[in-house]
Amino acid sequence: MIILGINAFHGDSSAALYVDGELVAAVEEERLRRIKHWAGFPSESIRYCLSEAGVKSDQIDHVAFSRDPMAHLFEKIVYTIRSRPKPGFVIDRLKAHMRARGSANPLAEAFDISSGEIKSQIHHVEHHLSHSASAFLVSPFDEAAVVSIDAMGDFRSTLLSIGEGSNLRRISGVGYPHSLGIFYTAITQYLGFLQYGDEYKVMGLASYGEPTYVEEIRNIVTLESEGKFKLNERYFLHSTKGVTMTWDNAAPEIGRLYSEYMEQRLGPHRQPDDPVTERHKNIASSLQVVLEEAYFHILNAAQKLTGKRTLALAGGVAMNSVANGKIFDNTEFDDVYIQAAAGDGGTALGAAAFVYNNTLAKPRTFHMRTAYWGPHYSEEKLQECLENRNLEYEKFEVTARHTQTAKAIAAGKIVGYFQGRLEWGPRALGNRSILADPRRPDMKDILNARIKRRESFRPFAPSILEEAVSDFFEQDHPDPFMLKVYPVKADKQDVIPAVTHVDGSGRLQTVNQHDNPDYWHLIKEFEALTGVPIVLNTSFNENEPIVCTPDEAIECFLRTHMEVLVLGPFFVEKQADTSVSA
């Protein structure tokens, strides 16, 4: 049984392939097209998935799209009649409806079918049901409370369900125009961070401020029973003009979500090039506080309504790693599962899993323990790419490569690390990573100056051996997908300053020897040299999508001030010694 899951014409378009109930390939279109948050049809992702599995298009039994434009149709009509939105909003929704329902044509092109005839059975799985399936159906839980929270999809922003076996049963939800995702994005825009996906910047900025605007921002979100909430629509524009997750500097009114009333209450908005002031930091801090209050309100309602002590969580808001790190302290849940692509990209996985496990009533056999589902390259291909650029390299056996790489990191060198399959989801998790020494207080500034060229308030992540987590962090619940922030123990903050945020926290990735033995052994070798079972990990890119191919890795290495590139078994070191003195 072969099922292709597709997230199309929505943020982070993607594809995932299920074969006999097991995920075999998954990738976001942005990694292949090299355009961040690509939201068109994921034709390149589809072609990759089929190629990876050795599957031809006529062998696909089912195609599952992670949107259903017919869902909640009556509510959409009633809302349109009552709210009388601007004509442009209605036209935009109709176009989106037609595009989603007519998705067979671009699918035929991706399948290279000239006749346009698709033999596969087509399914449309509601957006939040796809999110929920992407969390629960690939989790280790037999039963769980299941929560999906994001900006908007199929006229819903929030869904609470109960998961049991292969089934998902809806319990409660929140519909348009009320949305925690839009709430957070609107204030992100107000703070001068305009691009889709910039919310994580505000999350990092929040730690630098004080929550002095909490009472004002609480006026924007009203919490109700059963995990529901409402937005004060005076602060927003989306209820009449719609949601467009793009920003055009020439026509800023197109993508703006916040209203003039928000500026009346909070003061003038920040321009992107303006300095970040204490007021902006304090608003970000207050936003995070109020978001967490609403977040835990929803999660606690889900726990009470389901009676479950395990939680499967998805949606764009579930990418708020600061809030996720506080779940155990603020709810009754004993265990939490958030898969690597919890945002919209992951709905391709959810749609495929829902069709296999729910629609076709097949038993669950797959648990997603790792994020390594993307393209990979042979040793011969890696060597060819290096030789095409006339780069000198050494080839090492595995143990020697780990030793050489660990020594380079310990010496203060910045290492581009390219191994195995590309990660699924927004985080680099050791296969497409830039690695550095977490012990150096200046390493954060060095990385920003030499390579990342990003805001100084954004933290870098620690990758830590799973068995050592309790030695360095206040929480020891594993998180292989880097989706939780935990407090660093007070006596360890000076040991790993480069990965300790200003508030004493770290967004950690726990590394398991079974799930990524290569990365685990590298960190273990670094521990043998330094006594610290942690390396600094940031994504292998420079203001672009994470590198996918060896050529992209080489290009990024050459145009930045990385000193070392480890490409499979090949070790490349730049001739000029620009390393930081130890």
**pLDDT < 50 runs, ≥5 residues:** 577-582
Quickly count the domains: 3
Calculate Rg over CA atoms: 23 Å
In CATH, the topology of the largest domain is named: DHBP synthase
Number of strands: 21
Report the CATH C-level class of the largest domain.
Answer: Alpha Beta
Helix content: 25-40%
Q: What is the second-level CATH architecture of the largest domain?
A: Alpha-Beta Complex
Number of helices: 21
Question: Can you give the mean pLDDT?
Answer: 93
Shape type:
globular
How is the largest sheet built, in terms of strand order?
13-21-20-14-15-19-16-18-17
Q: In angstroms, what separates the terminal alpha carbons? A: 56 Å
Structural class computed from helices and strand pairing: alpha/beta
CATH superfamily of the largest domain: Carbamoyltransferase, C-terminal domain
Give the DSSP E fraction (strand runs of 2 or more residues): 15-25%
Largest sheet: 9 strands, mixed
Describe it for me?
The chain has 582 residues and is an alpha/beta fold. The protein has three domains: 140 residues, Nucleotidyltransferase, domain 5, CATH 3.30.420; 187 residues, ATPase, nucleotide binding domain (Nucleotidyltransferase, domain 5), CATH 3.30.420.40; 195 residues, Carbamoyltransferase, C-terminal domain (DHBP synthase, Alpha-Beta Complex), CATH 3.90.870.20. The chain has 21 helices and 21 strands. A nine-stranded mixed β-sheet has the order 13-21-20-14-15-19-16-18-17, sandwiched between helices. Strands 3-2-1-4-5 form a five-stranded mixed β-sheet. Strands 8-7-6-11-12 form a five-stranded mixed β-sheet, sandwiched between helices. It is globular and about 70 Å long.
